[in-house]
C-alpha cells in the first residue's frame, strides 16, 4: 500500500479535504466574474488572502489563517496535496496528532508574518508552508534513523522522492505570481524546529 498510515480519521486527511474545498471555492468565486488580467488577483484579495497593507493598516488579522489554506492555481494545489498524501499520514502517525496540529498552526502564523516582511506588497497564498513543514518533520525522522541499517534502501528512495516533490513544487514560484516563495522557507524552518521524537519501539512498522 502506497500510504500505509492512511485513514479518514487523520488530521492530514481532513486538512486535504479543507484545501480541496478552499480551492473549489476560489475557482467558483473567480470564474463567476468577468475575466481579465486582474481577475485572479482580485479574487485572491477578496477571499482574504495575504496582503500586508490590509493587515497593517486595517487590522484584518483573519487573513493570517485564511491565506494558509489557499493555492494559487491547479498545479500548485495538486503538487501540495500530493506531497501531503505521500508524507502527511506518516508524519502524523509518527509524531502524533497534537504535535502535527501545533506545528501546522505555528507554521501558518509565523510564516504569514515572515512572508509579509519579505514581500509585503503582493497578494499571495501560503498553503505551501504546510507541505514544507511536513517535509521538514519527515527529514527529522530520517535523521533519527540514519544508522538503522534495514531502512537504508527505503531511505534512499524516500530521499529521491522528497527531492523530486520539492523541486517540482518550487516550479510555481517562478511561473505564478501569487505563490509566496518565503512561505516555503518559513514552513520548512518551523518543521525543522520540531523537537525530535523518541525512537519508536516498532521499527518494523515504520514504513
Write a structural description.
There is one protein chain. The protein is built from nine helices and no strands. The protein has 207 residues and is mostly helical. It is globular and about 55 Å long. Helix 5 crosses helix 6, helix 6 (97-118) packs across helix 7 and helix 7 (128-144) packs antiparallel against helix 8.
Outline:
This protein has nine helices and no strands. With 207 residues, it is an all-alpha fold.
Structure characteristics:
mainly alpha, globular, about 210 residues, single chain, about 65% helix, disordered C terminus
Task: Give the secondary structure arrangement, pairings included.
Blueprint: H1 11-31, H2 39-46, H3 52-58, H4 63-67, H5 74-95, H6 97-118, H7 128-144, H8 152-175, H9 181-192
Helix pairs in contact: 1-5, 5-6, 5-7, 5-8, 6-7, 6-9, 7-8, 7-9
Number of helices: 9
Strand count, sense and barrel status of the largest sheet are: none
The secondary-structure class comes to mainly alpha
Strand-and-helix sequence, N→C? Answer: HHHHHHHHH
- Gyration radius, to the nearest Å? 18 Å
Amino acid at each position: 500500500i502506497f500510504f500505509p498510515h492512511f485513514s479518514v480519521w487523520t488530521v492530514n486527511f481532513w486538512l486535504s479535504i479543507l484545501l480541496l474545498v478552499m480551492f473549489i471555492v476560489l475557482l467558483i468565486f473567480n470564474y463567476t466574474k468577468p475575466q481579465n488580467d486582474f481577475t485572479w488577483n482580485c479574487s485572491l484579495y477578496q477571499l482574504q488572502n495575504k496582503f500586508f497593507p490590509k493587515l497593517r493598516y486595517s487590522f484584518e488579522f483573519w487573513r493570517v489563517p485564511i491565506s494558509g489554506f489557499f493555492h494559487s492555481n491547479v498545479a500548485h494545489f495538486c503538487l501540495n496535496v500530493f506531497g501531503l498524501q505521500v508524507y502527511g499520514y506518516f508524519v502524523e502517525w509518527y509524531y502524533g496528532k497534537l504535535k502535527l496540529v501545533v506545528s501546522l498552526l505555528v507554521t501558518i502564523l509565523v510564516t504569514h508574518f515572515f512572508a509579509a516582511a519579505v514581500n509585503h506588497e503582493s497578494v499571495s497564498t501560503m498553503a505551501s508552508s504546510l507541505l514544507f513543514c511536513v517535509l521538514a518533520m519527515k527529514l527529522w525522522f530520517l535523521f533519527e534513523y540514519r544508522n538503522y541499517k534495514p531502512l537504508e534502501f527505503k531511505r534512499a528512495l524516500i530521499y529521491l522522492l522528497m527531492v523530486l516533490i520539492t523541486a517540482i513544487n518550487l516550479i510555481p514560484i517562478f511561473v505564478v505570481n501569487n505563490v509566496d516563495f518565503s512561505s516555503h522557507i518559513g514552513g520548512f524552518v518551523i518543521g525543522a524546529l520540531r523537537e525530535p521524537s523518541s525512537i519508536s519501539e516498532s521499527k518494523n512498522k515504520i514504513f
